[in-house]
Design goal:
heterodimer; A: alpha+beta; 2 domains; 13 helices; 12 strands; elongated; B: alpha/beta; Rossmann fold; six-stranded mixed beta sheet; four-stranded antiparallel beta sheet; 7 helices
Chain lengths: 406, 239
């Protein structure tokens, strides 16, 4: 019986192809828009998530210089107010698992006939732990390299590409600011950071080497930033407080005076970025679902016309023994079939559109089976919801009047 | 068991209009036996169509009894009424009332869909009946590809498919020329000889001639009920 009714629904749709197509179009556009928007939104979410992961978890960044800019002060990170000893002191704080002091800047790097301008990070081996950054080749420099300020380097993939092409860089010597450095290892791919920088375009060298040979230091041992990793999410507020009080104490800042450093919670920043993209993706979905709603209303409209047009047919069916629910099912099924077929076409167009957008813009696009399933379920529900009223209207017709209808 | 297919006792039907209650049927009493071939006649507005609708379980009387195959059906509602229409009654209409989009085979088989019978049996039974009414070659045609007389034959085949105890025909020749009308009436006669009870509404006397009994309505009452005996004598039925 069900299959016979499904056949009828299919037949009825075929009887007025143009109208069925136009009705379906509302559904196609609605579902297509939802799938596409969700793909774009989820793509953005995933990109943010990935760069948060690449950043490392539970991080603080302590910058030299005051947090608020007033008067003519030098930019954060430029004042020589942080040094290696601050970093060493932080290691003993409760809840702190890793501390990595950093000096950085950019420099021209030369290998054979090639040269490349890249960012140089002078730091300690714990930097790689903090950033959960592995090597794809070679090995990391050790604490003894820090003590003796050896000229060794770890290089990122982008630098490898630009200086070495396909050659194996490990063991080769490059020149950074005219000093020769031996490459110990190659860093793993990290991708883009939250602000869109290529994190693989970098060279990591021992902190001491950077201070003495590359950037110099205004005061012995001064660093620009210290990255601090907390044990867990929960201890972060406590660690933030103890970082502040430790540094105020070490820098002998009296009560009521401004800090000469600033502590930033990177994880909180990252989370707010994630929240933003999530909201954006939700908003896109919501806008797209409006078109789904409009599509549903289109279906209801056409089904009402169809019921009126087929009043006589309904009368005939009732006269030969169709029950109310048979008529109800017939029209409901028709609405559902239109919705589902429209939905399938819409999914096709949405996925196709998503692939096209990702191809054209190189933007990250995620077509998840979950979003397709959601669109499908919503479409079927729209069919049931907007098909029900016309179908019930048909089922409740008076057979005598329906038969008399011309 | 009274043995009557139809037994109607003091049947009334009123319509509610703006001007008040308007009686259409007033104290109608009628018994129809299995194997009867009854023509219901009367001018427009005499109440014969309303009576037909009540007999066909499309409408309910305001008061009175209607026994169909000894079952009281006057107070049935909704699904149970639909079941009676499906299983016990076969309808033939003036306008044929076939579904234009469906093939003749599907048209004839349609009542079986609502009886919950599977496709193979539906089609087998529909094929047999289309053959019986002389349209074996047209099973896959659509209603608009055949003549009016042929369409009415399809409608008769559809009425027969659930082996009803009663066929109700409402002006079945009203849209047909006289030659085709004769053919259709001959088919009804044939079916009646096979033992099927037929109730026919018509206003044409020569069509009514084919019936064995004529019931005349006027102003909501039966004013005449005569046996003409032209086709079948009582007692000669193949039940």
């Amino acid at each position: 019986m069900f299959s016979a009714m499904l056949g009828e629904a299919w037949h009825a749709m075929g009887a007025n192809r143009l109208r069925t197509f136009l009705t379906m179009l509302g559904m196609v556009i609605g579902v297509g828009a939802v799938v596409l928007m969700m793909a774009i939104g989820q793509g953005a979410e995933q990109a943010v998530k990935k760069s948060i992961q690449s950043m490392g978890s539970n991080l603080f960044i302590v910058l030299a210089g005051p947090p608020n800019m007033g008067g003519a002060r030098s930019a954060t990170g430029n004042a020589p107010s942080l040094n290696v000893k601050d970093a060493t002191a932080m290691e003993d704080l409760e809840g702190v698992s890793n501390v990595a002091p950093i000096n950085m800047g950019s420099a021209q790097v030369i290998y054979a006939g090639n040269n490349w301008n890249t960012s140089i990070i002078g730091t300690t081996p714990s930097y790689l732990d903090v950033r959960s950054w592995n090597l794809s080749d070679g090995y990391v420099f050790s604490d003894s390299d820090i003590r003796s300020a050896t000229r060794v380097a770890l290089i990122g993939k982008t630098v490898v590409q630009n200086l070495f092409g396909d050659d194996d860089p490990v063991g080769k010597t490059i020149r950074i600011k005219d000093s020769p450095f031996i490459i110990l290892g190659v860093l793993d791919n990290k991708g883009q950071s939250l602000d869109g920088r290529d994190q693989d375009d970098t060279i990591i060298i021992p902190l001491t080497t950077s201070q003495r040979r590359v950037f110099g230091a205004q005061f012995s041992g001064s660093v620009r930033q210290i990255i601090v990793q907390a044990d867990s999410d929960k201890v972060m507020p406590m660690v933030e407080d103890s970082l502040n009080s430790l540094l105020r104490q070490r820098h002998r800042i009296r009560e009521g005076m401004d800090n000469d450093f600033s502590v930033r919670n990177l994880t909180a920043l990252a989370n707010s970025a994630a929240e933003t993209t999530k909201t954006m993706s939700l908003l896109l979905g919501a806008i797209a679902s409006v078109s789904l709603l409009v599509g549903g209303i289109g279906i209801m409209n056409i089904m009402l016309v169809s019921v009126t047009e087929r009043t006589r047919e309904i009368g005939i069916r009732m006269a030969i023994g169709a029950r109310e629910r048979d008529i109800l099912m017939q029209f409901l099924l028709e609405a559902i079939v239109i919705s589902i077929v429209g939905c399938l076409i819409g999914i096709g167009i949405g996925v196709g559109g998503a692939l096209l957008v990702s191809h054209l813009t190189q933007a990250p696009i995620v077509v998840s089976s979950q979003s397709i399933l959601t669109a499908f379920i919503v479409a079927a529900s729209v069919g049931v919801f907007f098909g029900f009223y016309p179908a019930r209207k048909a089922a409740q017709l008076n057979p005598i009047e329906a038969l008399r209808f011309q | 068991m009274s043995g009557h297919v139809i037994e109607v006792k003091s049947l009334y039907k009123d319509y509610q209009t703006a001007a008040g209650k308007f009686p259409v049927l007033k104290d109608v009493n009628l018994e129809i036996d299995a194997g009867d071939f009854v023509a219901i006649m009367g001018p427009s507005g005499s109440g014969k169509s309303t009576f037909m609708n009540i007999l066909g379980c499309l409408d309910q009387p305001s008061s009175g009894e209607y026994m169909l195959n000894d079952q009281p059906v006057a107070r049935l509602q909704g699904d149970r009424l639909a079941k009676v229409r499906n299983q016990t009654i076969g309808f033939v209409f003036q306008g044929f009332n076939l579904l234009a989009r469906s093939s003749l085979l599907d048209n004839v088989a349609l009542p079986l869909v609502y009886a919950g019978i599977d496709k193979a049996e539906r089609h087998a039974r529909a094929r047999v009946l289309l053959e019986k009414v002389g349209l074996a070659k047209h099973v896959n045609s659509h209603p608009n590809q055949i003549s009016g007389g042929q369409q009415q034959r399809v409608a008769i085949a559809r009425a027969l498919i659930n082996r009803p105890s009663l066929i109700l025909a409402d002006e079945p020749t009203g849209n047909l020329d006289s030659k085709t009308s004769e053919e259709i009436m001959a088919l009804f006669g044939e079916l009646n000889r096979e033992g099927i009870t037929i109730v026919l509404v018509t206003h044409e006397p020569d069509i009514a001639e084919h019936a064995s009994r004529q019931v005349r309505f006027l102003d909501g009452r039966i004013v005449e009920d005569i046996l003409t005996g032209s086709v079948t004598e009582h007692g000669e039925k193949h039940v």
